[in-house]
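Hi all, a correction to my earlier message: I attached the wrong file for Ferric uptake regulation protein. Here's the right sequence:
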Amino acid sequence: MTQTAIERGTKWLTEAGLRPTRQRLALASLLIGDGKDRHVTAESLFAACAQSGEKVSLATVYNTLRAFCDAGLMQEVVVDGSRSYFDTRMDDHPHFFWEDTTEIVDAPADQFRIAQLPKLPANAELSRVDVVIRLKRV
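and the right structure:
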């Protein structure tokens, strides 16, 4: 990990009110250390962590990703009941999901419009709308 990645990770965590433990900082540095947004699965982040030489269990990765989501640092993108991705980009935007490679990427938000949503129940308010556009290669 570079010093810049550690500094970015520390700032990211502390601004969200999370204590920058060694494990959180290692994962945060991998997620946002280069300043780029990314989509990860728990398994892909676990592999990246192992490749970087950090010792973090898969259970810790899952728990930490959940804590990051709860703190508002990331959002979970559920592709189907068995597949979740975690996105460091927090603005509202759609996603493309490539079924052949199981890769998820940001779709251009400026090209996407929702014309109308169904009427919400009386005791509800809209939290967010998740859009995953599934793609097949031709």
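Sorry for the mix-up. Helices lie at 3-15, 22-32, 42-51, 58-70.
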